[in-house]
Specification:
Chain B: Belongs to the DEAD box helicase family. DEAH subfamily. DDX15/PRP43 sub-subfamily. The complex is a heterodimer of chains A (about 350) and B (about 750). With about 350 residues, chain A is mostly helical. Chain A has twelve helices and two strands; from the N terminus they run αααααββααααααα. Chain A has helices spanning about 20-25, 30-35, 85, 95-100, 105-125, 150-165, 170-180, 195-225, 235-250, 255-295, 320-335, 340-345; strands at about 135-140, 140-145. Chain B is an alpha/beta fold and about 750 residues long. In chain B, the strands form four sheets. In chain B, strands 4-3-5-2-6-7-1-8 form an eight-stranded mixed beta sheet, sandwiched between helices. A six-stranded parallel beta sheet of chain B has the order 9-16-13-10-12-11, sandwiched between helices. A five-stranded mixed beta barrel of chain B has the order 17-18-19-21-20. The longest helix of chain B has 24 residues, at about 735-755. Chain B starts with a helix and ends with a helix. The relative contact order of chain B is 0.06. Classes of the chains: A mainly alpha (about 350), B alpha/beta (about 750). The interface between A and B is large, with 95 and 100 residues.
Chain lengths: ~350, ~750
């Protein structure tokens, strides 16, 4: 805990675990258990129980639970990983890195990542983000509406990325390459996606089914159109027809096998298109999410995924307690000032 | 049979004439009555008489179900029956009915796994009914539920499905309420109730099949029942046992039940996408609120379920979300968001609110409205809310833990298990594909969460359990075959406590007092206090106090009116402590003035009407038991100087193990034997500086508090609980010196009195 942390005083007894009782082997309970054939260190329960392999430490001694005085989430630590940075140690991370046997290249990348993250958070703090309205997606020469979303795929990709992040270095490559597209998970709390693999698989499968259905539909359409050549033609069918003709020319014949092959090609193309669309959509979504979280950032969780191995970014505006302090001050002012009230409710004026 | 008896560790109880008056044993004498014969008579007319027990087929049963007459009571089947039958046949379990029957007929024990929504709770007992034909044996099928409400509502549903009146062929039995008749062949009951029956009838002879439902919840009673039934099935080859679980730790059940066959039926659930945060959260509550708002802002229609830990946290979150959602609707044109709280101590009327449909859009064509339910983990398994599509899971719940070393049982916020997390996520996929947002990283999910939640038996003080086991005839506690044997230290403490309470003698056998105490559905200390209260001429008062101590907090202290609430509490305050204050409250509540409009009166005095009403109810039930046990109900006249002193002395008779003595520093207290430093809880009314206090509850926080305290005199301690306050057993220290001083003073006074008399 830093110097500014609130003092916590608690009195510990000389024997908080009451070992005096634990060690006492003459008490009634101990006597009865021993008389029934129990020996210290043994589990209770049937002798040679078939389910013994399922026993855990909780069957040997009482369950220990950490007393929680704050709302720290699972996996987060008090002071946490960000603490070093708070004290300016981040600047030394290069030296530490080298001392830890990392190559100069790695260290360099690490520092670049740090710098980028800082820049991003600075920009976010200072100017806020531009909001854009979704205006559809341009595919070829027409607008596509009603995109199917594909969170499963996105999340799968994301997961892979996260896995990479842990390694630390590859992330940087990604960061550099896709920088502007993905100011993303910076500050993004909650909803980032990384679904468990089976879950995503299930959704994928489902989607595949749907796609298949779509395809079937289209195929049917295609066949009917080839059967009745002289019907009214809309642009779409025309294009399809043209493509088919070209192919037919190439093959010389219109065999069913051909047709299927052709449809496969088309499938692949469509798939690729869809994939691209999804990618796009996902990015947009992330952007939106980020904006949203930015908006509500008063006491931000500031969980950022700076590519430093196992470290998180510096919390802007000083330590967690500084943020807290500010929050409390604002709260005090709240009754007088509607603006302050708004801030406490974590809403920035639009 | 006799040989089996010898093998078993259970002591058989002789049934004597005295048992005839025992309601739990009523069935043993039923055969002489017309009751069962009548049931059989009915059955003989129906198609069921052609059925061969344990040899039926799904097809045959199907015919019987199609009517036209009810196979169980001969009455013509109603229209509703057939419409329900149609939906019933669509349930996943029906697809595997034949498979179930084959396995059920072949083996004595069966483990059945069905995810939520498979229909197992309502259908399997009916499958059993048609095959087991318990009416032909004069027996019953029992199906246990961990919760009273579930037992009642499921029984109601199944009665409808079988087209019979609830309480006739299908009934339920929960504590204090028996809705069965001599015609009953299928009985839903709480697991605790079956355990109580087992105390008086170790072989559970009135049942031909016992179904333990929701076994995955691993309640204390279910765990003990499993241990018990494992023995019973050895003694009774005709008894069949089905263990039903909703989760996949079924292998553990299978192993435990000697590799019993397993039947799994898939549930009817939709896929749920799981999302993790990329980084751990600094504040899970805030993150949860933001996630909810974000879902509201960005996700398509569908209701949200957010899991938080406690009443206070939930109420706070609900308030904030409603506030923010209104703002969002005003400023960003979002749809309406209605947020509801859900926790156990919520009044039923308010609990019902969560089933209201989501609010309509503000204007036609506007963004759809949505409801958000902020709940404790009761929404995890026990309550199903339709329409939930998004689940927000911060990964915490309040869980009971018991530390036998310092003898503290408390509810603490701690991380849930993986199994729990999956259950929570599953709630999103009840009506259509959903999403679950977990406010922790995937790595944390894998590394920091335990696989399975700890069963209750590992998290509780076992004093009353040991008493029950003793009553059940289990003497070898060490080798009692539990699925999860408790920690040895926990068992030791329980034995020790019971010994000090004189419920167990020095050989570890049940005493008369212990037998009587086991009749009360109370903590042994409370039971002993109640039983010994006539000695102090205040059993009426102790009865009220016991009831008050076994219900939720009676004092209400809303954040907005703390001062008013405290003033009102002062009206009832008794300077000697909180127990007496509570008693004053109860007496005032029962006064004619208050009873005119009790609800308003409670509201005016910042008291919980529900808690007081509940206390009233519990008091009535306990009174009935006291009358049955022939414990005198007496009172000291209120004018007597000793009125309150007697009550305090009676309190010591039960709570002498929960006493703290003031430190020499004069600020903190120290618990007498376990020597833990504690503070008086700020809510206490204890006015005087009392050196010795008896407390009801040890609250574990960074500062340890004792709550509900009453001043006692050390002389009483030495008088009433001489074995516990045997000075030789204390280590050198303040407590010992103080006790020694008191003892010396007492013997001096006694000598003086004797001298004076001479």
């Amino acid at each position: 805990m830093g110097l500014g942390a609130p003092k916590k005083r608690s009195k510990l007894s000389t024997d908080p675990n009451n070992t005096a009782w634990t060690k006492n082997t003459t008490n009634f309970g101990h006597r009865i258990l021993s008389s029934q054939g129990w020996q210290p260190g043994q589990y209770l329960g049937a002798k040679d129980a078939a389910h013994q392999e399922h026993y855990t430490a909780a069957n040997a001694s009482h369950i220990r639970v950490l007393l929680r005085e704050d709302n720290l989430g699972i996996g987060a630590q008090v002071g946490g990983n960000g603490r070093a940075e708070t004290f300016g140690l981040a600047t030394l991370s290069g030296i530490f890195g080298r001392l830890n046997g990392k190559t100069d290249g790695e260290v360099q990348k690490q520092q670049e990542g740090l710098r980028d993250a800082e820049l991003r958070s600075y920009q976010g703090m200072k100017y806020g983000h531009m909001n854009f309205v979704y205006g559809g997606l341009l595919v070829g020469d027409k607008m596509e509406e009603g995109l199917m979303k594909d969170l499963a795929r996105a999340s799968k990709k994301r997961k892979a990325e996260e896995g990479v992040e842990e390694e630390g270095q590859k992330t940087l490559k990604r960061k550099k390459g896709e920088e502007n597209l993905r100011a993303e998970a910076e500050d993004e709390e909650s909803a980032s996606s990384s679904s468990s693999s089976d879950e995503s698989e299930r959704t994928l499968k489902k989607k595949a089914k749907k796609e298949k259905k779509d395809r079937k539909e289209k195929k049917r359409q295609a066949t009917t159109s080839s059967d009745s050549d002289d019907e009214t033609e809309d642009a779409k069918r025309l294009r399809k027809e043209a493509r088919r003709k070209a192919k037919r020319d190439a093959a010389g014949q219109d065999s069913p096998a051909e047709k299927s092959k052709e449809s496969k090609d088309e499938k692949a193309r469509r798939k690729a298109e869809k994939h691209a669309r999804k990618e796009e959509k996902r990015k947009r979504k992330e952007e939106k999410r980020r904006l949203k979280s930015e908006k509500t950032s008063a006491n931000s969780t500031s969980a950022s995924n700076t590519p430093v191995t196992g470290n998180s970014t510096p919390l802007f505006g000083g330590s967690r307690h500084a943020v807290r302090q500010r929050y409390i001050q604002q709260k005090r002012l709240a009754s007088m000032d509607p603006q302050a009230l708004k801030e406490i409710l974590m809403l920035k004026a639009q | 049979m006799a040989e089996e008896d010898n093998k078993s560790r259970f002591k058989r109880q002789k049934t004597s004439d005295q048992d005839r008056s025992n309601p739990y044993l009523a069935h043993m004498y039923n055969d002489e009555n017309a009751g069962n014969g009548q049931t059989n008579g009915h059955a003989n007319d129906s198609i069921l008489s052609t059925f061969k027990r344990h040899a039926t087929t799904a097809a045959g049963v199907r015919k019987a179900e199609d009517g036209p007459n009810n196979p169980f009571n001969g009455a013509p089947l109603s229209q509703r029956y057939f419409s329900i039958l149609k939906t019933r046949r669509g349930l996943p379990v029906h697809a595997q009915r034949q498979e179930f029957l084959d396995m059920y007929q072949k083996s004595q024990i069966l483990v059945f796994v069905g995810e939520t929504g498979s229909g197992k709770t309502t259908q399997i007992p009916q499958f059993v009914l048609y095959d087991d034909l318990p009416q032909s044996q004069g027996k019953m099928v029992a199906c246990t539920q961990p919760r009273r409400v579930a037992a009642m509502s499921v029984a109601q549903r199944v009665a409808q499905e079988l087209d019979v009146t609830l309480g006739q062929e299908v009934g339920y039995s929960i504590r204090f309420e028996d809705m069965t008749s001599n015609k009953t062949i299928l009985k839903y009951m709480t697991d605790g109730m079956l355990l109580r029956e087992a105390m008086n009838d170790h072989d559970l002879k009135r049942y031909s099949t016992i179904i333990l439902d929701e076994a995955h919840e691993r309640t204390l009673a279910t765990d003990i029942l499993m241990g018990l039934l494992k023995e019973v099935v050895k003694r009774r080859p005709d008894l069949k046992l089905i263990i039903m679980s909703a989760t996949l730790d079924a292998q553990k059940f299978q192993k435990y039940f000697l590799d019993a066959p397993l039947l799994a039926v898939p549930g009817r659930t939709h896929p749920v996408e799981i999302f993790y945060t990329p980084e751990p959260e600094r504040d899970y509550v805030e993150a949860a609120l933001r996630t909810v708002l974000q879902i509201h802002a960005t996700e398509p229609e569908g209701d949200i379920l957010l899991f938080l830990t406690g009443e206070e946290e939930i109420e706070d979150a609900v308030r904030k979300i409603n506030l923010e959602a209104d703002e969002m609707a005003r400023e960003a044109n979002s749809g309406p968001l209605k947020c509801y709280a859900l926790y156990g101590s919520l009044p039923p009327a308010q609990q019902q609110k969560i089933f209201e449909p989501a609010p309509a859009p503000y204007k036609p064509g506007g963004r759809p409205g949505r409801k958000c339910i902020v709940s404790t983990n009761i929404a995890e398994t026990s309550l199903t809310i339709d329409g939930i599509v998004y689940v927000v899971d911060p990964g915490f719940s309040k869980q009971k833990v018991y530390n036998p070393r310092i003898r503290v049982e408390s509810l603490l916020v701690s991380p849930i298990s993986k199994a729990s997390a999956q259950q929570r996520a599953g709630r999103a996929g009840r009506t259509r594909p959903g999403k679950c947002f977990r406010l922790y990283t995937e790595a944390a999910f894998k590394k920091e969460l335990i696989d399975q939640s700890y069963p209750e038996i590992l998290r509780s003080n076992l004093a009353s359990t040991v008493l029950e086991l003793k009553k059940l005839g289990v003497d070898d506690l060490v080798h009692f075959d539990l699925m999860d044997p408790p920690a040895p230290e926990t068992l030791m403490r329980a034995l020790e406590e019971l010994n000090y309470l004189a419920c167990l003698d020095d050989e570890g056998d049940l005493t008369a007092l212990g037998k009587m105490a086991s009749e009360f559905p109370l903590d042994p200390a409370l039971a002993v206090m109640l039983i010994s209260s006539p000695e102090f001429y205040c059993s009426n008062e102790m009865l009220s106090l016991t009831a008050l101590l076994s219900v939720p907090q009676v004092f209400v202290r809303p954040a907005a009116a703390r001062k008013r609430a405290d003033e009102m509490k002062d009206l009832f305050a008794h300077e000697d402590g909180d127990h007496l204050t509570m008693l004053n409250v109860y007496h005032a509540f029962k006064s004619p003035a208050a009873q005119e409009n009790p609800k308003q009166w409670c509201h005016d005095h910042f008291l919980s009407f529900r808690a007081l009403q509940q206390a009233d109810n519990v008091r009535m039930q306990l009174k009935r038991i006291m009358e049955r046990e022939e414990i005198e109900l007496v009172s000291t006249p209120f004018e007597d100087k000793k009125y309150y002193e007697n009550i305090r002395r009676a309190l010591v008779a039960g709570f002498f193990m929960q006493v703290a003595k003031k430190d020499t520093s004069g600020k903190t207290y120290v618990t007498v034997k376990d020597k833990q430093p504690v503070l008086l809880h700020p809510s206490t009314v204890l006015g005087q500086d009392s050196e010795w206090v008896a407390y009801n509850e040890f609250v574990l926080t960074s500062k340890n508090y004792i709550r509900t305290v009453t001043a006692v005199k050390p002389e009483w301690l030495l008088d009433i609980a001489p074995t516990y306050y045997d000075i030789e057993s204390f280590d050198k220290g303040e407590v010992r010196t103080a006790l020694q001083r008191v003892k010396d003073r007492m013997s001096r006074r006694r000598a003086q009195v004797a001298g004076g008399r001479r």
